[in-house]
Amino acid sequence: MELYARGRHLLRDQPGLVVVAVATLLLVGDLLGKLLGDGLTAARFGGFVWDGLVIGLLIGLAGIGLSLTYSILGFANFAHGDYISWGAFSGWAVAYLLAGIDRYAAGGLLLIGAGDGPAPGDVGVSITNTPLSIVAGLVVAVGFTVGISLLIDRAVYRPIRDADGITLLIASIGVAFALRYLIVFFFYSGRQGVTDISRVPSYDIGGVVINAHELTIVVIALVLMVGVHLLLQRSKLGKAMRAMADNRDLAQVTGIPVEGVIRTTWILGGGLAGAAGYLVVLTQGTIAYDLGWLLLLLIFAAVIMGGIGSVYGAIVGGLVIGLASRLSLIWLTGDLSSFAEPVAFGLMIFVLLFRPEGIFGGVSTA
Amino acid sequence: MSSDQFQTGRLTQFRELLERSDAALVLTAMAAFYLLFLGIGAILNYDVAGLISILGQVTFFTAVYALIVLALNLHWGYAGLFNIGIAGFMAVGVYTMAMLTAPPTGSPPGLGLPVAVGIVGGMLAAALVGLVTALPALRLRADYLAIVTVAISEIIRLTYNSPAFSTFTLPGGIALGTGGASGIGTVPSNPVQAIYYVDPSSAASGTTPIGAAIFGFFEAVFGVVRSAVIVDLTYGLVLAVVVFLVYTLLARVGNSPFGRVLKAIREDEVVAKSLGKDTNRFKIKTFMLGCALMGLAGVLWQGFGTGAVYPQAFRPELTFYIFIAVIIGGAGSNTGSVLGGAVFANLLFLLPQYLPNIIEQTFSIQADPNNFIAAVGPIAAGEIAPLLGYILNQRLPALRFVFVGVLLVYLMQNRPEGLLGHRTETAAAVNLSEGHTAAEQTGSDLTAPEGGVDDE
Amino acid sequence: AGNGGGDGGGRTLSQGVLMPLSGGLGNLGQPIRDGATLPFTLLEGNTEFTIDSQVEDTQTDPNAGQTAASALVDAGYPAVTGAAGSEVTIQVAENVFIPNSVVGCSPASTSPAITDLDDNNLIWRTPPTDALQGEVLAQVASENIGASTAATLYVNNSYGQLLSESFASAYGGTVQNQVSFPKGASSYSSQLSQALSDDPGVVIVIGYPESGVQLFRDFYSEYAGETPFLVTDGLRDSALPSDVGNAMSNVQGTAPLAAGPGNEFFTTEYQDAYDSEPGVFTSQAFDATAVCLLANAAAGENSGPAIAEQMQAVANPGGEEVTPSTLADGLAMAAEGTEIQYKGASSAVDFDDNGDLKAATYELFGFQEGGGVETIEEIAFSA
Amino acid sequence: MSETTATTEVATYDDSLLCVRSLDAGYGDLQILETVDLDVADGEYVTIVGPNGAGKSTTMKSVFGLTTYMGGQIEFNDEPIHGLRPEEIIHHGIGYVPQSDNVFPSLSVTENLEMGAYVLDSVPDDAMQAVYDRFPILEERQGQKAGTMSGGQQQMLAMGRALMLDPDLLLLDEPSAGLAPDLVDDMFDRIDRINDDGTAILMVEQNAKEALKRCDRSYVLVQGKNRYEEDGDALLNDPAVRKQFLGG
Amino acid sequence: MSSESAVDGVGEDSAAINAAGDSGEEPPLRVENLRKEFGGITAVDGASFEVADGSLTGLIGPNGAGKSTTFNCITGVQEPTGGAVYFNGSDIAGRAPNAIVNRGLVRTFQIARELAEMTVLENLMLAPQRQQGEALYRSVLPPFRDGVIEEETELREAVWESLEFFEIDHLAEEQAGNLSGGQRKLLELARALMTDPDMLLLDEPFAGVNPTLEAKLLDRINQLRAEEGLTFLLVEHDMDIIMEHCDPVIVMHQGHVLAEGRPGEIRNNERVVDAYFGEQR
Ligand SMILES: Nc1ncnc2c1ncn2[C@@H]1O[C@H](COP(=O)(O)OP(=O)(O)OP(=O)(O)O)[C@@H](O)[C@H]1O
Ligand SMILES: Nc1ncnc2c1ncn2[C@@H]1O[C@H](COP(=O)(O)OP(=O)(O)OP(=O)(O)O)[C@@H](O)[C@H]1O
Ligand SMILES: [Mg+2]
Ligand SMILES: [Mg+2]
């Protein structure tokens, strides 16, 4: 009786929550049925989960930077995806150069095989084969992206620092166009293989195949996330960032060096974007000028789902988006498999309907 | 009065005219664009038919951009609804039109209904999808709404793109389809063809009496045998009329108590509510009206204008182009929207397509290195031709986008309010300063009783 | 416009080229453009005729393609080599070429939908229709590979959809799954796992190198790599194995064979001019331009309908043989009214009344260790 | 009672801490202040009163480098400070408490105070303790999010933050606005004490009666110009001033 | 002032005020056991009070007592956690703000919320209720638009009058965002009055308004009460105003009503002095 009354109450007050709960139950039930029956092998399920985790971590990593700049500078940076792409291209140009300089001309290597440059199979870049060049590439990817972030901030955003968020957002669309097609200008517009898949060892863990590059990514992503967490928790910088997100004018009046904090924000955001872009290529094995742009909407979905300004929100949002886009394939088979991405977007919209501020909205955790 | 003085006098007069009359402003701008492109045609040695064709294209693209920029201005300029799902709403409009009107025997099959039903159906469908989008819109902050709309637009595009609905059967056994990634190629032909051809779907079917007369005239006077260019130009002019009608409609919406509430919602929705306005209803109505117009723009542009519907035409980039156009013109101003559409269509969309030809016409650069290093390498040896060849022959399309991006940044830094956004256009059906004694003498004689329609 | 022809006293032959030089097919389109403009280079200084040409970029986009095509038509080009992607070709044909009576000859669009265009004989193409390739694929799958079950993985566009269908209807065995994939995605794992889920005897992959690289990378990193694969012309890219990073020994493919009498000459000239191997559809592009030029010379005027009327006459059997190496002479003969037949770089170029090739030779190819494509078998086919 | 129209009549103070001369300032192209003169001596307590829109807040902001500088000079401790950025001005020893939105709502009380000392390498413990001693309620509420505190508490927090660097001059823009009467009194008492401890005060107040009662000297600002300058009580008793600005 | 106010007959103690409800005449505003919680914070904790017809009732209390939150709950800007709000006899708790305004209950905001990028004129033109032209079709279709234009012409007159009264007519064409703090408060008040309400809730309307103008505005409020029977509920920290003009006065403390009564009683109520006035005077 008591239960019934409570249930009715819940249904009236939080219909959305009830729908979500019921839908989740149904899906989990169906999933269990599939796993116990022979609709889905544990290995395939595990594969989906692992894939979802890897892509989710990358989205989360890239999302942290977007989230930080979003809350501190007050605008949605549509060029973030193209920072990611530049991170990928700059990093891999160097990784290629180091891995192949003993055998090939520098030009073709620096352009990652553009024109008549050497093929990836010949250069042979992989974490086990050329670990040093991979690490050097990562460092360059981070450094280069930090560089362009700062340069663009100086040239584009700083002169209009006081403009409203929409003006800045539209300027960032301009930056996005310019950056993306500058990649085409210097490199190429297709998709090109980069890593040497024949030299990437993989491990079979309970039927789930995990390769060394994916492991590398997970490790690096986690290290970077923990690093950012510590940096923001332990230093007064994190507080200054939150203060600026609260009220930039007051921060200025208080004596917080506003420009300095903004610069740091770009360094963090750009660096993480560059790292994410570099690592995305490590897992995909291919590189394309629009790789960041293609990820951008998913990253936005993750950031918004997690709540703008929240570092943990971005990470959680990234994981949710990553897992949702992979696990949905359990149900979306055949021609419907093209709906994996719409499912991720749909999920974001759904979350916003019930939590308009995002999962971690209102709680700044930077 | 010396002729010099006379000239400057004329010039000031003209400038004043432009400031006062929006019609003069738009017409002058269009005249300039027509001249520019006629000049380009002349450089490229076009014959009369070619010149008519280029004028037709200028008219067509100006009109379709103006149309959709106007619709966006209603959302963004007036109500502050940050809709970046424009491409999706256009897609809904044109797809619905195509699916309603495509022949049932075609591949994919359609319903074979009359074109008029298709147009209205397309607008209604876009409005309905707008309604569904507006429901979350009511709860969300501007930038969240933006992400939701772009997500919905992507969902729409991916749905049309998906093979799942390539063809499907409705419950009643009627077959219908989106054509998946190959789209719908059997869109009904452009309605203006009915003026000229006996069977509007085929130029070979013979000309109507009007068609015969007009084609005959052009052939006799200008020696134009390509009748298609005349049909295209006609369509452009029809679209210009549509733009005028939509402009009038939106000017009235803006210059009215309705528009005033929209403006208030843009500024502070809680205040609008606390002044007794049912903001949700205003937002929904506005969103639906704007989406219907976007659907219409989709039908007129991607449907009749190009004769086929493909999902890839509705990528988010299209939305950004429209946004760029609205910014160029100045958000909030309808005249600015038309101008912004014109500037974008002509200077950023069409002109770059002709630019390579003009450059090639002037200098011929044979060098054609296929990568950047090969292009810059020779510079050390003092050779600049490879780089130029690389730029012109290999990377000009990419540089066009770089240019668009840089221009956008420049605009945001130097003229964020756009060409006409600085004009404060008071949202009221009458001139508010009038009626007050102190302000009476200023400009009251200039104001037409209809308020904004012509001087917006 | 490269005004070739030097001091020749003949009239001007105008020929446009419309190709995707940027966008999704940009990488594919650039070499095809090179093939299409090679005749201009070869003829320069060797003929009485002045040749006027112009290249336009479709950006792999139907809308931009339409504007680009209009630019060619407005500039007075009566015939155009192009376009490449089937969507763009159809769109441009219906909205620009046909209404303005301009000849379009595509060197790369293989969609069966092009056959049925209501085109006043204005639209032609030098590669065979995929209706044929579907049959070739089916034959190879059952006979050469001996598979009784198959799955298809096709790129989600007109090319992929129709070719997958035409394979499925021609195939004698069971088609277990037809899985579509989007162009340019960053992972194809899920599509692969679906296609492979019922352990098919062969997997047909219809797509372009851009997606192929990713797809085969995903395949080799996640599966043992033993299932036989069959790819189509779109994936006949000698760089594929090295881009993928695998020898791809389980993969074979079918493609229209570039086996015209003039192929050898074409290959050398192409290498000379561009310093790289001719790619897929480059020889078809050469032939498309060559036939249009010949028809133009025969027509005696830069007029679309007149050229259209001569297309079959200059290409189909009967008369003096003209090959890529004798193109200059061919133009002179055509202009004089001599009956000629063009036998090209890709094929003998014999048009039926729909503007399609009457007969085609396909090759079954495989990838070589260390890059390169080798022909395993030639399969002749006639419609 | 002296009506000052030009700089000449303004008494010059040799020991002037803040010295504003012929200041023109505004927002963008819009000029608000016209030849404003202002002096605050070391340890002095000065108020600015005037009708709404007179430019009082603008004057404060101008001293702190937050408006568009258009001419004239501002000297602090005999060094020109016009054209400097706020964080530099803070280094010179000026604290500023804006009229509204003057705390960081999502930061805790302690964090808000820490921000006040951001320009230093580390937060001086004694400074923090001094603020707590002055405003014990803040010590009680150390961990509370500033945004959830009441209006009066926020006002104290804002003042505490400005005091973290122990400035020589404190700019206060309507510190009593919106406070309950007990807090108004309390606030003025606290300001008195801050002043007694040696910090010079420049304050804008609409609660002119109270402000004039307590200050050493006052300026009346009208339409961006100095109108009167006098010690507080004198202004309070001036019938013209009463009528025009103090509501009779 | 208070001598001529409509609540003259109210008895000496607060119970008598409540009696007004018993005497058969429903007061325009009755708040019953109103509650509002934010997460852990209870901002309004069971507040109950009434506002008599035509009165200028004062609502005072320490900072954070819940006055603004009470306003927000009454006017629908926030949804109350519990309790009821009766306006002219019907329960309006939880209704949309616009619905409440339509019934004639209007409020101003403590921190003025001007529509920054609209002119002062537009701000005021927005306020009148039930404008014909707010229907889309009427604004657009020719046969109806004439009526809209006529109505706009009439509203314009009223708006200019109001501007002149509030002494901001020189700012008519100015963007509201460029006004000074005090000017914004004036605009806020003028705009609320333009809605032609039956009852107004004013949240510290005079904070930051200079005293001369303040006196004039109070005169106007009293005039509106006398001539048009408007009812006012006023939050104010300036005790001079409360004592001189308000009757009765309701004192809130920690979310509930601590006391209510005539200003004189309140002044001397020990608990109120403790909680609110402190050692002042
Ligand atoms: N950001 C701004 N942009 C443009 N004009 C402004 C801005 N801020 C204030 N003003 C204008 O400057 C003038 C002075 O404003 P200021 O805020 O200094 O007045 P104030 O004396 O503090 O008045 P109040 O007592 O009402 O706060 C006003 O006319 C106001 O409209
Ligand atoms: N949105 C909110 N979230 C959390 N707490 C809130 C919120 N709004 C108000 N409060 C809290 O509720 C309490 C009452 O606030 P309210 O604004 O109603 O006070 P008030 O009586 O109007 O005070 P003042 O005179 O300072 O304006 C305060 O403790 C305040 O911190
Ligand atoms: Mg002020
Ligand atoms: Mg309050």
From TrEMBL, chain A:
The keyword Transport applies. The keyword tRNA-binding does not apply. It is found in: Cell membrane. GO terms for biological process: D-alanine transmembrane transport; L-alanine transport; L-isoleucine import across plasma membrane. The chain crosses the membrane at residues 16-33, 53-76, 83-101, 132-153, 165-188, 208-232, 266-287, 293-324, 336-354. GO terms for cellular component: plasma membrane. It comes from the Archaea. Its main location: membrane. It is a multi-pass membrane protein. Keywords: Amino-acid transport, Cell inner membrane, Cell membrane, Membrane, Transmembrane, Transmembrane helix, Transport. One of its GO terms (molecular function) is L-isoleucine transmembrane transporter activity. Belongs to the binding-protein-dependent transport system permease family. LivHM subfamily. This is Branched-chain amino acid ABC transporter permease. It comes from Halonotius pteroides.
Automatic annotation (TrEMBL), chain B:
The chain crosses the membrane at residues 23-44, 50-74, 81-101, 113-135, 228-250, 287-310, 322-351, 372-392, 398-413. It is a multi-pass membrane protein. Keywords: Cell membrane, Membrane, Transmembrane, Transmembrane helix. Its main location: membrane. It comes from the Archaea. It is found in: Cell membrane. GO terms for cellular component: plasma membrane. Residues 435-456 are annotated as: Disordered. GO terms for molecular function: branched-chain amino acid transmembrane transporter activity. PANTHER family: HIGH-AFFINITY BRANCHED-CHAIN AMINO ACID TRANSPORT PROTEIN BRAE, HIGH-AFFINITY BRANCHED-CHAIN AMINO ACID TRANSPORT SYSTEM PERMEASE. This is Branched-chain amino acid ABC transporter permease.
From TrEMBL, chain D:
InterPro entries: AAA+_ATPase, ABC_transporter-like_ATP-bd, ABC_transporter-like_CS, BCAA_Transport_ATP-bd_LivF, P-loop_NTPase. Pfam families: ABC_tran. PROSITE patterns: ABC_TRANSPORTER_1, ABC_TRANSPORTER_2. One of its GO terms (biological process) is L-amino acid transport. SMART domains: AAA. It comes from the Archaea. One of its GO terms (molecular function) is branched-chain amino acid transmembrane transporter activity. The keyword ATP-binding applies. Gene3D superfamilies: P-loop containing nucleotide triphosphate hydrolases. Residues 18-248 form the ABC transporter domain. Keywords: Amino-acid transport, ATP-binding, Nucleotide-binding, Transport. Belongs to the ABC transporter superfamily. This is ABC transporter ATP-binding protein. It comes from Halonotius pteroides. The lineage of its organism: Archaea, Methanobacteriati, Methanobacteriota, Stenosarchaea group, Halobacteria.
TrEMBL record, chain E:
PROSITE patterns: ABC_TRANSPORTER_1, ABC_TRANSPORTER_2. Pfam families: ABC_tran, BCA_ABC_TP_C. Residues 29-279 form the ABC transporter domain. It comes from the Archaea. InterPro entries: AAA+_ATPase, ABC_AA/LPS_Transport, ABC_transporter-like_ATP-bd, ABC_transporter-like_CS, BCA_ABC_TP_C, P-loop_NTPase. The keyword Nucleotide-binding applies. One of its GO terms (cellular component) is plasma membrane. Keywords: Amino-acid transport, ATP-binding, Nucleotide-binding, Transport. GO terms for molecular function: ATP binding; ATP hydrolysis activity. Residues 1-28 are annotated as: Disordered. One of its GO terms (biological process) is amino acid transport. Probable component of a branched-chain amino-acid transport system. Belongs to the ABC transporter superfamily. This is Probable branched-chain amino acid transport ATP-binding protein LivG. The lineage of its organism: Archaea, Methanobacteriati, Methanobacteriota, Stenosarchaea group, Halobacteria.
